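Each field is set out as follows.
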Amino acid sequence: MLDIADELHRWVEQGRDFAVATVVAVGGSAPRRPGAALAVDADGTAIGSVSGGCVEGAVYELCQQALKDGESVLERFGYSDEDAFAVGLTCGGVIDILVTPVRAGDRDRPAVAAALDTAAQGRAAALARIVSGPAELVGRALVVRPDGSHGGFGAHPELDRTVAAEAAALLDAGRTGTLEIGAQGSRCGAPLTVLVESSVPPPRMIVFGAIDFASALVRIGKFLGHRVTVCDARPVFATEARFPEADEIVVEWPHKYLERTEVDARTVLCVLTHDAKFDVPLLRLALRLPVAYVGAMGSRRTHLDRNERLREVGVTELELARLRSPIGLDLGARTPEETALSIAAEIVAARRGGSGVSLTGAHTPIHHDATSEPARRIGSVA
């Protein structure tokens, strides 16, 4: 649901009633991941998607029904070999979808509204909703914030605390996942499944080196949803005129900027400076930070020379193993735009757990689950 927070937040502010269908779990080659959502308002307007088109019509009708009767429902869609015209996933796989009404006066509208407001403002929050369990609890929601504050399902305080703690861990990692809570742990006499959706600010991409290749990389970084910073010590190159799409332009020695700026486990660092006086102190620091990706531009000869320089300043072999250099995947890239695509492809592969090989003739999965958590099972509450 939080993937369409901007639009849904406007609906809430306008006082609209709506229903949301959210992907809870997938199996096989289902096209959308947990958290993807389709919403339908009382006038029949629809936004979002849960399947890329396969089951949208059937889910649209479920949303309309939920708006009428006020009941949440969990539906499963899969591929049907027996009836090619049955509503199902034409690409194969299985998808579980939770349909929840969000109407004026509904008990859980305030929690949903709070999560949407937070996500629309680009701040971090997690929305936990009960997917399966006693009928009276299905669809119940609570919001968890980074400071640990949270609401309640209205079932049992221990259940709220358990879910809040697990949701906080998923939020900290920026992940969406499900919790399987046993009958004893749920404190309601029956097992529960809870979907936790995390909304976090856009991941950072920091591009060091204000060169032509950087301009193309900024554009593709923005396209992929990153908050992009360009850093270069040379003010004549690091200008808004050259990088109009960058969120931030910093004129400073790269390693000094990296020392003082905030990074996290989703941050990607792209070193395009191609100059040892910038590269060595910068990479010495970068390879010791808990970031998602560190890549450096240069020929294979430059790479070998740079590695020796890094070893001389104390960078270990384990730290060097984190360095993606020469940067990018082998696409035969020549132009700045092609090179930026090569770098972006490597970043996506690293993030999603992809191999980078051609899908034609390969036996690897089309979709990887690197960004969604497997269900966590919780037996009891101490």
Observations:
- Residues 157-173 form the longest helix (17 residues).
- The longest strand covers residues 18-27.
- The CA atoms of residues 23 and 33 lie 7 Å apart.
- DSSP finds eleven helices and 16 strands in the chain.
